[in-house]
Specification:
By secondary structure, this protein is mostly helical. It has one domain: Up-down Bundle (Amino acid/polyamine transporter I). Helix content is 75%, strand content 0%. It is built from 16 helices and no strands. Helix 6 packs across helix 7. It is globular. The N terminus is likely disordered. One of its GO terms (biological process) is spore germination. It holds the Pfam family Spore_permease. It is found in: Membrane. Its main location: membrane.
Length: 368
């Protein structure tokens, strides 16, 4: 393989940082301020965001260290070396199951919110079906293209988030943020569970590790990829509380969307800024869901190498669509999301961390 071919099939630090960050800034950023505000007093929720972020950074280290220990290998290959082939099949199928359910929930979530804010006369089922078809088109192509797509989408998403913050500076009321440290520390810890759920997604590097050439940069890149969402979640939460107050924030289902509605662009360039925000936000969700679907397919391909990718897509897509439609109420959808998040913690974070521990005890590295 010549240098040109190698560069076309490899990713660097920037792609890793952007991909991890984009995975973490997804559907949860719309609802997280509401969830935190309901369980904490005033602006104390920022402590839950930081605490959840520290937990995520701990697992980021474990996943980054595991991937660095086995350069050029995917999760299935790592597990095979550390344990055995049958055990590798099991742990890989478990993470694939979690990611497929994640995609199913995201498709339903996107269709629900899009209908609420953009296409109020279009049935959710139609929106979800169109969105799923676009995802199918994306994952039918090469994985490396999805990773590099973040180089375009992520800077735009970050820019729009910063724009929302800057244009709401005039509406920020510091009195809403005070007093501080009024929430019991146990509630802070309990609430951090919800913030930890929002940091799920960094496990994609267990599979995209096959494209990483400079393994020495991997761990630091994954760390930076987690730090950026921590900062964004922190800023967004502070502004939601500072603009609306804790009572309004705790009773608003999608505070970030309402924050975008508050924006008034000088000169009247955008009369409905929230429409512009949702278009950009859908870009990051598309990238997030495409990568999750792609990684799930990579996992299945490593277990069932004889099956073609497109065959798997045709089998899985209707199942994902139907599963997403099963929750009939918002409460059921939230329960569905919570169980998927618990699966993510167990299958995508704890199991890789245990594999790293076993690898260190046994002294196993990438060369077997």
């Amino acid at each position: 393989m010549n240098n040109n071919q190698l560069s076309n099939q490899s990713i660097g630090s920037k792609e890793i940082v952007y991909s991890v960050s984009n995975m973490l800034i997804g559907l949860g950023i719309l609802t997280l301020p509401n969830t935190i505000a309901r369980n904490t007093h005033f602006s104390d929720g920022w402590m839950s965001i930081i605490l959840g972020g520290m937990i995520a950074l701990g697992f980021a280290w474990a996943i980054g260290a595991l991937a660095s220990r086995f350069p050029g290998k995917n999760y299935h290959a790592m597990a095979t070396i550390i344990l055995n082939r049958k055990a590798a099949h099991v742990v890989t199928l478990l993470i694939s199951l979690y990611l497929l359910l994640f995609v199913s929930y995201q498709v339903r979530g996107v269709s629900t919110i899009t209908r609420l804010y953009l296409f109020d006369n279009t049935p959710e089922e139609i929106i979800g079906l169109v969105y799923l078809l676009v995802l199918i088109y994306a994952v039918a192509g090469p994985s490396i293209a999805l990773v590099r797509m973040n180089l375009i989408f992520f800077p735009i998403v970050v820019s729009i988030m910063l724009l929302i913050v800057i244009l709401n500076l005039g509406s920020l009321n510091m009195h809403y943020l005070l007093p501080v440290f009024k929430t019991d520390w146990r509630r802070i810890v309990i609430t951090s569970k919800d913030t930890v759920f929002s940091y799920l997604g960094l496990e994609i590097m267990l599979f995209y590790n096959i494209y990483v050439v400079r393994k020495s940069k991997l761990l630091g890149s994954v760390f930076r990829g987690v730090l950026i969402p921590i900062f964004i979640y922190f800023i967004i939460f502070v502004f939601v509380i500072g603009v609306f107050g804790p009572i309004v924030a705790s009773n608003t289902l999608y505070p970030l969307a309402e924050l975008a509605k508050e924006v008034e662009v000088p000169g009247g360039i955008f009369e409905r800024f929230e429409f512009f925000f949702f278009v950009i936000w859908l870009m990051t969700l598309f990238s997030t869901n495409a990568m999750a679907f792609d990684v799930a397919l990579l996992a299945l391909e490593s277990v069932f190498p004889k099956y073609r990718r497109f065959t798997m897509i045709l089998i899985l897509a209707p199942i994902l669509f139907i599963l997403g439609l099963l929750p009939s109420t918002l409460r059921e959808l939230n329960v569905f999301a919570e169980w998927i998040s618990y699966m993510g913690i167990g299958f995508a974070w704890l199991l890789p961390a245990l594999l790293l521990l076993v690898a260190k005890i046994r002294g196993v590295k990438g060369n077997g």
